[in-house]
Structure formats: C-alpha cells, structure tokens
C-alpha cells in the first residue's frame, strides 16, 4: 500500500466548516444550474468574510448561488471585486488592487452586531465558518472550428 500524506489545513474560524466554495471568474456564466449535478441553483444571502492584504478583514453580506445537493456556494468574482474597489476607494485608497481571499462565512447574529459596532479580529474568528473545500471549474467545449474542413477548403483551387 502506498504511503500517503494527509492534507493538513489550518482552520481559522472556531465554528465548524460549511459549504464548498467557488469564486466564479467567468463574467458570462452565472450558473443557474449546478456545474456538478446539473440541479437548479438557489440563492442564499450570506455574510462572506474577506481578507484584503495587508491585514484588512471585513464581512460582505452577499447573495450567492447555492446548490443544496452538492452544498456548493458560488460567489461571482466580478461582483466581489467591484464592491472591494468601491469600498476601499473611499476608505483606504492605498489598498485598492491588493490581493484578497474569501475566508468563509460569518454567523448572521455576529454579522448584525458587527454592523452596529466594529468587531475585533478575535470576535470575528470566533464566529467564522471556514469553507469545507474551495473548488474550481474550467469551462470546456462550445462551438469549435473544425480545422480539417478549413484546411481542405484552403487546398482547393477554383478556376
């Protein structure tokens, strides 16, 4: 039997992990059907916890696509980046364009408290649900030009 190493992941949040997560980079794909099981996607509004370099942590109450069968949560990258750019342009312009990472979701009562008064890093980590898994999907297929027919047409001469 081969010797396999276990994947070790560090859990930041103190709450149990929830959801498999996909940050959708495709602006033209809005995923009305699940990319895994082809079931109809639902919508779920959740407070996403986002870390922006250097050391900026905040929550964004965002409507995401959700497949209950696969426990898959999809957020659209262009929507998240648009919000980050507009928020940090006003608050901290030097941070605009920095790398960011969606860490997980926040418990709703903690998020509501955070809208009234700023939360400390420790309080946010206490209410954070990390993602079970971060997944990626690649688009394949579509209409592809048949190069054999194109090359055959190029080889023919008409008089």
- Rg, alpha carbons: 21 Å
Low-confidence stretches: 1-5
Task: Give the structural class.
Answer: alpha/beta
Kindly report the average pLDDT value: 86
Q: Give, in order, the helices and strands.
A: EEEEHEHHEH
Number of strands: 6
Give the distance, in angstroms, between the N- and C-terminal Cα atoms: 69 Å
- Shape estimate: globular
Tell me the β content.
Answer: 25-35%
Q: Any idea how many domains?
A: 1
Q: Mind describing the biggest β-sheet? A: 6 strands, mixed, barrel
User: Largest sheet, order of strands side by side?
Assistant: 1-4-3-2-5-6
Helix content: 10-25%
How many separate helices? 4
Can you describe this structure?
With 159 residues, this protein is of the alpha/beta class. The chain has one domain (15-155). 25% of the residues lie in helices and 33% in strands. Strands 1-4-3-2-5-6 form a six-stranded mixed β-barrel. The longest helix has 15 residues, at 77-91. The protein is globular and about 55 Å long.
Summarize the structure.
This protein is α/β, with parallel strands linked by helices and 159 residues long. The chain has one domain (15-155). 25% of the residues lie in helices and 33% in strands.
Note the main attributes of this structure:
159 residues, alpha/beta, 6-stranded mixed barrel, 4 helices, 33% strand, globular, disordered N terminus
């Amino acid at each position: 039997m081969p010797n396999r190493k276990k994947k070790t992941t560090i859990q930041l949040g103190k709450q149990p992990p929830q959801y498999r997560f996909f940050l959708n980079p495709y602006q033209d794909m809005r995923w009305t059907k699940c990319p895994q099981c082809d079931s109809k996607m639902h919508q779920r509004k959740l407070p996403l916890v986002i870390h922006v370099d250097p050391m900026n942590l905040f929550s964004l109450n965002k409507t995401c696509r959700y497949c209950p069968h696969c426990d898959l949560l999809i957020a659209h990258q262009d929507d998240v980046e648009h919000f980050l750019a507009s928020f940090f342009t006003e608050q901290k312009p030097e941070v605009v364009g920095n790398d960011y990472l969606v860490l997980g979701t926040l418990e709703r009562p903690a998020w509501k408290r955070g809208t009234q008064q700023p939360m400390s890093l420790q309080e946010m980590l206490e209410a954070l649900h990390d993602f079970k898994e971060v997944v990626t999907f690649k688009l394949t297929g579509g209409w592809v030009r048949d190069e054999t027919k194109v090359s055959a047409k190029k080889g023919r001469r008409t008089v």
